[in-house]
Specification:
Strand content: over 45%
Distance between the termini: 31 Å
CATH superfamily: Immunoglobulins
Shape: elongated
Helix content: under 10%
Number of helices: 0
Largest sheet: 4 strands, antiparallel
Structural class: mainly beta
Order of helices and strands: EEEEEEE
CATH architecture: Sandwich
Radius of gyration: 16 Å
């Protein structure tokens, strides 16, 4: 995995927060073959994604929970918005893949 497996930006504008998220992950479907040996590459893909907002008072609010399958592209990019949030609050992302690997990242919401 890349040393920076989650890149995230969050920007507050006109009463809503827009989030852009890039997850570096190979997202192997289990149907691919190694180009050198021809051996099958085992399935390894993100199966759970959770996005949370940590408010100024420290409370955590779950914004999104997604269950993925092998049909999601390598290095998935997600772009969404939610009502509310505020500059200075935090957006945190966590994911887990079918191999038990986990990663997280967070950013502060900017104006």
């Amino acid at each position: 995995m890349s040393p920076d497996p989650v890149r995230i930006e969050a920007r507050f504008l006109d009463g809503r927060t827009e989030v852009r998220l890039l997850i570096r992950h190979p997202m192997h479907t289990g149907r691919e073959r190694d180009p050198d040996s021809g051996a099958p590459i085992p399935a390894l893909y993100i199966d759970t994604l959770i996005v949370e907002r940590i408010a100024a008072d420290g409370r955590t609010h779950e914004l999104l929970q997604a269950d993925f399958g092998p049909g999601i592209a390598r290095n998935p990019f997600h772009h969404f918005a939610f009502g509310g949030g505020a500059p200075g609050e935090t957006v945190r992302v966590r994911w887990r893949d079918t191999g038990g690997n986990e990663a997280s990242g967070q950013t502060v919401i900017t104006a």
